[in-house]
Amino acid sequence: MPIKFFNTLGRKKEVFEPIDPKEVRMYTCGPTVYNYPHIGNYRAYTFADIIKRVLTYEGYKVKQIMNLTDVDDKTIRDSQKEGKPLKEFTEFYTEEFYKDEKMMNILPASKFTRATDFIREMVEIIQKLLDKGLAYKSEDGSIYFDIRKFKNYGKLSGAVLAEQKENASGRIKSDEYEKDNMQDFALWKAWDEGDGNVFWETKLGKGRPGWHIECSAMSMANLGEQIDIHTGGVDNMFPHHENEIAQSEGATGKSPFVKYWMHNEWVLVDKKKMAKSFKNFYTLRDLSEKGINPLAYRLWLLMAHYRSKANFTWDALEGAETALSRLYRQYLDLGEDNGSVNEAYKQKFKEYLEDDLDTPRALTVVWDLLKDEKVSPANKRSTLLDFDKVLGLGLAELKEEEVPDEITKLAKEREIARKNKDFKKSDDLREKIKQLGYEVKDIEGGYKISKL
After folding, report:
1. Secondary structure (3-state) at 59
2. Mean pLDDT, range 350-356, rounded to an integer
3. What confidence score (pLDDT) does residue 404 get?
């Protein structure tokens, strides 16, 4: 069965056929490194990770570039607030992001690219747009893209120029704005006092890049002028991705810039978008402070289809953590012997993933496999390890924890009581063991202790 992805550009599922069969070229919108990403951001990064894992699982070689926005309105604003040089300020949050990705078991991109390393490439693209008459210089020296000169502007987001609200036309210097404020956007921002010492002296003048041009430059410099997949959250669709299309296709004359645009839906809190601006966001540190394994959040994300909104509650996350603990326990109970991957279950697992990454249904295959008494423990173990190449829940790293001496002693006492048919004492000791966070199960020839 071929892989089908929902392409935002065509608003339908399409069979995946890479431009170059030898290598899938994929670009992921990464973080703006001015703060800790919130867990809503990690839906986008986990989503991209699943795409890459599925493609690799299906035999493709994937080259993934993820950008790190280390110069924009927010990084300049907040570095100035903290009184730190931009590079020092953004480097701290870059390193914290790497730690978070590791906690979420997100595979590293083939290359992480910092915007400040690609100023030359940005300048070259902007110059091409000026030469083609698709961009112009304003009175203050800033350079804007003329969206009315680009045919089909709005084809990704569905925004229509003719339907814009009154007085919406004109220029906008801000990096981020709403769809009903469609205006010519800044490619190059002439220096002003608000930028402090953040600027570059180029043939375009003294200034810095706009946010949107950064991704076009990093993508084209590392993946070529046309790529297979571009990922991001639905909030990136406009203006960011819409502007990427306009400036990239405008500069190269090649269409499409991206063959498959893929977007994940929002994580909501109390049915509202999670955002730093709304002050209703949580970070992975908030989860850790509550003693919750970040991989429980990964599992919670996989329990919803990426194109469905997910409403975050602590109860829901705790439910996912219970499910993860149950999975871990059942996996460890299978023993340490490896067998063969069960092909029937694997085919069903692949079938769901190939249908636009249907991870909720793929997870049902995991639970069905564990319940199937016809599959040997060794074969179950190997099949689960195979599935986890996609799910990324860390099964291969699991090990039985050493049982404390106190628990071992109580379990031995209970076994003696059970053999002596002192069932009240046996039950009391079982309850005491449970209160200490462990469970004792009677098995053929003895008993087994496991952590709850």
Report:
1. coil
2. 98
3. 84
* Number of Cα atoms under 13 Å in the Cβ half of residue 205: 16
Report d(CA 295, CA 318) in Å as an integer. Answer: 12
Residue 118 and residue 115: Cα distance in Å, rounded?
6
Q: What is the pTM of this model?
A: 0.89
- Give 182's DSSP letter: -
Using DSSP bridges, classify how beta strands 200-202 and 205-209 pair: parallel, antiparallel or unpaired. antiparallel
CB neighbours of 62 closer than 8 A, spacing ≥ 6?
Answer: 23, 24, 26, 52, 55, 56, 110
Contact 262, 228 (CB under 8 A): no
Residue the block writes with tokens 């979420």:
104
pLDDT reported for residue 366: 98
Q: Where are the alpha helices (DSSP H) in 104-210?
A: 119-131
pLDDT of residue 415: 87
Running DSSP on this structure, what letter comes out for residue 452?
-
Tokens of 311: 């409403």
| Pairs from 285-292 (Cβ < 8 Å, separation ≥ 24) | 285/36, 286/39, 287/39, 287/317, 288/103, 290/314, 292/317, 292/318, 292/321
- Asked if 155 contacts 11 with a C-beta cutoff of 8 angstroms, the reply is no
**Residue pair 353/306 in contact by the 8 Å Cβ criterion:** no
What does the alpha-carbon distance between residue 318 and residue 299 come to, in Å, rounded to a whole number? Answer: 11
**pLDDT tens digits along 404-449:** 878 888 888 998 888 888 889 888 998 988 888 888 888 666 777 7
Distance between alpha carbon 219 and the CA centroid of its chain, in Å? 18
